[in-house]
What we know:
Elements: E1 6-8, E2 11-13, H1 18-24, E3 32-36, E4 42-46, H2 60-81
Antiparallel strand pairs: 1-2, 3-4
InterPro entries: SpoVT-AbrB_dom, SpoVT-AbrB_sf
Protein name: SpoVT-AbrB domain-containing protein
Organism: Lederbergia ruris
Amino acid sequence: xxxxxxxxxxxxxxxxxxxxxxxxxxxxxxxxxxxxxxxxxxxxxxxxxxxxxxxxxxxxxxxxxxxxxxxxxxxxxxxxxxx
Length: 83
């Protein structure tokens, strides 16, 4: 699928085809997460924030570090789990 970059107010944007929205299981108001790859590709997925309510007694800096770890090394961790 291809899309053109369009002007949206003072910004530039891209609309998403209905097939992509269904594939991502997103609707208006949902948040998306973009990951920039070294080779110029961009991956997109539905953003799922951590539910930290169950982790009230755990230090926020530790939780932020865990989230950073998973965001940056998700593929590596998945490959290790598959071994």
